[in-house]
Amino acid sequence: MVQKALRIDGLRVNVEDKQILKGIDLTVEPRSVHALMGPNGSGKSTLAFAIAGHPRYTVTAGTVTLDGEDLLALAPDKRAKAGLFLSFQYPAAIPGVSVANFLRTARQAVRPEDLPPAKFRQLIFERLDVLDMDVALMSRSVNDGFSGGEKKRLEMLQLAVLAPKYAVLDETDSGLDIDALRAVGDSVASLRKSDEGRETGLLVITHYPRILQYIAADHVHVMVDGRIVKSGGPELAHEIEREGYENLREEVAGGVG
Amino acid sequence: MASASTSADVFQGNGRVPTRALFEAFLEELDGSRQATPVISSEIRSEAFKGFERLDASGGKPGRDWKHDYTRIGTDIPLLQRSTVKHNAHAADGVRFHTPDTEGGAEFVRTYLGRAVHWREDKFASLALAFLEKAIVIAVPAAVRVEQPIDVKYDASGATGSSFPYTLVVLEPGAEATVVENAFGGGAFSCGIVEAIVGDGARLNYIVVQRADAQSTVLMNRGAVCGQDASCHWYLAELGGALSRSVVSTRLEGRGASSEITAFFFNDGDQHVDLASLVEHAVGDSTSRTTIKSAAKDRGQGRYLGNIRIAENANGSDAALRDDALLLSKTAHIDSVPALEIASNDVKAFHGATVGSIDEEELFYAQSRGIERTEAERMIALGFFEPALSVFPIEPVRDLLRMQLTEKARPAAPTANG
Ligand SMILES: Nc1ncnc2c1ncn2[C@@H]1O[C@H](COP(=O)(O)OP(=O)(O)OP(=O)(O)O)[C@@H](O)[C@H]1O
Ligand SMILES: [Mg+2]
């Protein structure tokens, strides 16, 4: 029997012939929370996009499996159907497509078995409420003219509505005010208490330990220059906040040289 | 040529005939049968026909893969067909609906013909007038507001002939009305004119839903003139036909007048659409907004000619023209040719245009939510039209258009030889 997990092994990724990820190993188990930190440009978003199947990111070596299923062989939509979700650092706007329509279409695609319209509406209202979002948003175009914070909340609304097996949150906390941050925390917490989201494993990419007060991480990893250079428990996040990445860079440099 | 057999030939049978021969037979048949005071004289018809033969379709050949040759279109056409026109105009609402046969109808046409569509300058407007067979007049008396949209249906579904519709809308000062022109079927060849006279302070919404049969050629000229503080909003949805050439214009003749034109087309298969809009600010303190959304997939070809003219001494005019084109396949093509001719100094004139294909980041975003690529493309393409579509003022019309666009946005069935 395969171990249930989002499993990344020896992953190397190129962007336009430049190697960005230089061998990543990372396993996110159901229900677990892994935080991924690292300086700007170290390759965190690259990892997120490569897992989700963005066409610009070329996997040159390694594997990514979701509960044993080879994700790299699948188109992006099939990866979502397999149970993967990516909360974008910079979500795209889709003019003329309403949030309501988008959510309904996505939910139907990911969970075709599903929910009568009345139940679906109820689900949306509950999730909106936790995120402290206005219903009026449902008739606006997806991310079109949204503020940074609104975009992140909409990512969280989608996470809550799609209830994936594994979710990668790429800097969902960046640019959020304190209330929004709490709302995001509440939303994730309520998802993980729900029947659908009980098993959801999370990979939380962040620059700040603050988000981890709301979404408690079991493990913290640090990426520098396309490699995970250190892994540890929650205390590692605070260590980084105190000391920055300089020591880690030196360790890496020392290791290589 | 005996006139009895001629008349049968003109209106019956299949196949195409040289247009000149058809025109001569048509004139003869009119001479033989008709009213003492025809709506338009044979002299005008003959002048119009000569104009058709002499004039070029303006703008030349639209794009390199354009398949229809304007110099040949109309040189032979199917036999004439008597089109059926249905409408729901109620005298009770204050609308007067005329055909030239009814009292007053011919009078309206004689008064206003050529006022809003300068048929002498356009090859196909000339052709439409040469063969004008039946005219419709919708007249709304001063200060009457018609609540209910006036539906006019040209229905010749399945017909294989030629038709030449002419519609005249006259809103007297302060009148308000919404007209919905729903053309489907339309015959194999349809060539027509719509003229709207919008009196001082009157407001006209004119909606066109063009859903001609897939094989049809549709050549329409529509024009409005607006008096002081009058407004005219054209809404055009060009959906059907093998070839649609659609010319729409508004001339603002009174201060405070305003024009809006909202139009879209979406060519799939081998559809060709040639859309031209012209807004003339003849006086100052007039405003215009023109919004065009065009998309093409498969081997669809399109052209948009957008013209704004601001006359001398039309200071205080405010004009905006925005057109966006979306290409959904490598073999689809859309040309967008805006032209602003501004002869006054103190005016506001804005023009913005985009042409492009679906953004990969948007596609990936939708795909990452489980939505298949083709479905995502369909969704994004429909979203592209939404800003134009959502301003159409009647909900059932919006629903119909959304349905039609959804249908068009579906991936084409693969062809046998790829
Ligand atoms: N499309 C691209 N073209 C060229 N270089 C790219 C592209 N995408 C990413 N890169 C490069 O890959 C490296 C990693 O970028 P990535 O976005 O993964 O970093 P990150 O760790 O998410 O940074 P941040 O914390 O600033 O979000 C950077 O040097 C970046 O410039
Ligand atoms: Mg990043």
Write a brief structural summary.
The complex is a heterodimer of chains A (257) and B (418). Chain A has 257 residues and is α/β, with parallel strands linked by helices.
Provide an overview of this structure:
Chain A has a single domain (6-253), classed as P-loop containing nucleotide triphosphate hydrolases (Rossmann fold, 3-Layer(aba) Sandwich), CATH 3.40.50.300. Chain A has 257 residues and is of the alpha/beta class. Chain A has a six-stranded mixed β-sheet with strand order 6-9-10-3-11-12, sandwiched between helices. A four-stranded antiparallel β-sheet of chain A has the order 2-1-4-5. In chain A, strands 7-8 form a two-stranded antiparallel sheet. Chain A has helices at residues 44-52, 76-82, 99-110, 117-130, 148-162, 178-193, 211-214, 235-243, 246-256; strands at 6-15, 18-28, 33-37, 57-66, 69-70, 84-87, 94-98, 141-142, 166-170, 201-205, 219-224, 227-232. Chain A is built from nine helices and twelve strands. Helices cover 38% and strands 28% of the residues of chain A. Chain B is an alpha/beta fold and 418 residues long. Chain B folds into two domains: 9-357, no CATH class; 360-410, no CATH class. In chain B, 22% of the residues lie in helices and 38% in strands. Chain B starts with a helix and ends in a 9-residue tail after the last helix. The relative contact order of chain B is 0.09. Mean pLDDT of chain B is 89; it is low at 1-8. At the A-B interface, helix 2, strand 7 and helix 3 of A face helix 6 and helix 7 of B. Bound molecules: adenosine-5'-triphosphate and magnesium ion.
